[in-house]
Amino acid sequence: MGTIRTVTLRNLEIGAGVPKIIVPIVAETAEGILDKAREIMGYTFDFVEWRVDFYEDALDTPKLLSTLKALRTILGEKPILVTARTKAEGGALDIDMDVYTALNTAVAQSGEADIIDVQIFSGDETVRKNIDAIHAAGCRVVGSYHSFEGTPDKADLIQRMCKAQDMGADIPKVAVMPHTPADIITLLDATQEMHNKYADRPIITMSMGSGVISRLCGECFGSAATFGMIGQASAPGQIPTQQLTEVLSILHQALVPQA
User: Fold this and answer.
1) Which residue in 63, 173, 197, 252 is the catalytic one?
2) Following DSSP, what letter does each residue of 243-258 receive, concatenated?
3) Which residue has the higher pLDDT, 259 or 98?
4) Which whole-number Å values give the CA distances from 238 to 74, 100, 233, in the listed order?
5) 163 is catalytic
6) Out of 146, 154, 163, 195, which one is annotated catalytic?
7) Which of 104, 158, 176, 182 would bridge 151 by S-S if both were Cys, CB 3.0 to 4.6 A apart?
8) Contacts of 54 by beta carbon, 8 Å cutoff, 6+ apart
9) For residue 3, what pLDDT is reported?
């Protein structure tokens, strides 16, 4: 494959150098969300994922956008990824796809978010509507697939990332649950093959739970970002950002040829 086209969110270039650290915000109330944002600004990280599916007013569009605007004020130039994860993929929202599309479209059109998560296996028509609306608003897309039940085989994982890429997602993302160490190896093998043979843009992959090694070694295999926690995690296996920063730096120094 040719050179990976990096994705720039504000001043952050994804797909080059050390994998970027994403910190989730998963509070239920506006007050809790904004308090968390103030807290994390005292730490080292690259951008935020706001998990709006945990927000008690996620389906109240004016309140949702008001909270997003306040979040932007606190975070300044830190990019914001907005994710409305449905129950079908391990999230907290039980909504139909028309509501899902309207939510993502409103967030994109607000101008306050930088990138929005779209579940790639939500039906092709729904996905196209979401991606088209988000891109039309000048926002980027993470095209995601999650499996909390297990780890598909390598060919399946690659196919899912290729589908996200083919449908126009700016960053394909795969997160799966391992049952054995071999499952973790499968995820990492799929990551490096996708990155080396098929990807023309950054990808994000992780093996959740006991697959914590995959959250640390992404640069070795081609994953461009990883999730770290400050307080509450949003998925199994996330580790504190301070430890994550140290490990990513050690690996990067080992991988980059020294002058």
Assistant:
1) 173
2) HHHHHHHHHHHHHSPP
3) 98
4) 24, 26, 6
5) no
6) 146
7) 176
8) 26, 27, 28, 92
9) 83
Which residue's entry shows tokens 């103030």? Answer: 38
Which residues are bridge partners to 86 per DSSP?
A: 93
Amino acid at 60: D
Q: What is the pLDDT of residues 86-103, one digit of tens each?
A: 998 889 999 999 999 999
- By DSSP bridging, strand 115-119 and strand 80-83 are parallel
b/e code 93-129 from CB counts within 10 Å (16+ = b): bebebeebbbbbbbbbbbebbbbbbbbbbbeeebbeb
Active site (annotated) includes residue 146? yes
- Tokens representing 204 are 């994000």
Among the listed residues 32, 9, 18, the one whose alpha carbon sits nearest the alpha carbon of residue 241: 18
Q: What tokens appear for 67 in the block?
A: 């909270």
Provide the token pair at 138.
């000048």
For the question of whether the overall pTM of this predicted structure is more than 0.90, the answer is yes
Across residues 129-158, what is the average pLDDT?
97
Instruction: Give rounded-to-5 percent helix, strand, coil for the chain.
Output: 45, 20, 35
d(CA 210, CA 202): 24
| Domains of the chain with bracketed CATH | 7-252 (3.20.20.70)
